[in-house]
Amino acid sequence: MTMPATLSYTEPPQRVRETLHEGLTQAVQAAAEMVAELGDATPARVNQDGDIEHLGDVTAVHRLVDAPGDSETVRWHFVESGASSDPTVVFLHGLPDSWWQWHYALEALSRRYHCLAIDLKGYGQSDKRSGDYRQAGVAGQLGALLDELRIGEFTLVTHDRGSPVGDHLVAAMGERVRGYGRGQQHLWHLHPSLHPQEQLMLAAEAPAMLGDARRFVSTVYTWLTERPVAQQDLLRTVEEFSHPGIATAVPRYFHSSSFRQEWVDRRTRLIRSWKAPVLLLQGAHDRLQPREFYQDAELLGMLPPGSDVHVFDTGHFWPFEAPQATVSVVADFCDRVATKSSSLSDGTPEH
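Structure tokens predicted for Alpha/beta hydrolase:
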């Protein structure tokens, strides 16, 4: 018989408790200024399979691929760069982002890596129909996409709400995962005060809040950043978060799971299932994810051999707050764990 978990929350450090409430209030006020500075939003562009995206001097390709899921198929949008014969790196974004969160990494890494920056289900140009939005369910559907693409071994890099999906994907894929760059998400320690967004996403007003993409993106980035973010990155983030259907699809994740459930799953079974080295990637000044929670001396001992932690001198959104540092750290990790790319055999795919 299943019993209630007896795990204990960790009290946040005093420096975090003192700023929890005032930070959001200040962000809401400052977001109004950012919205005005950003100007009119550009309509979300709609891509076709094979469309070209120029990232500096790198040519990337928009892909739209159907893969098994929700008792039929799920359509995925992702941006692909690099040669398929090179080791594969898969990138998963968070909220309120899209594949664009990783464009600096694609530009820098595609000369020696096969890169896939995927729009999560419900985001960007991926499928937004109702269906399975449990973290484990979406992870299973992502695994089916990788099978469809004949991807064998790969390195996974995630940020924010892409990490709970990544946690299940890494557990399910076993030896196919060469390394897991797990970014900016709760892990072993948790406290209910550190995930206020859960109640916002469960509220009836959530779709209306998310539907104002400029204001929502501006508020979140103002609240959780420590360093400036380039205007072009904010504008493209708003654009990619403006696709029809996102405002109703994203809350389904929060109705299908909870931060507590994710935490219990990690502590009772997921972490012990990970086989590949894990690099924890965190921003030192994130208001909701205290750096002290990731500098616990015992934490690395719970992770597979070769695991480590890197703390950026940033807030929550280090892919945009410190793009060069992000690229450098991610590239070093990939170089350490990746091997020559392997594709799946012609037989039945194995998860």
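The chain is about 40% helix and 15% strand.
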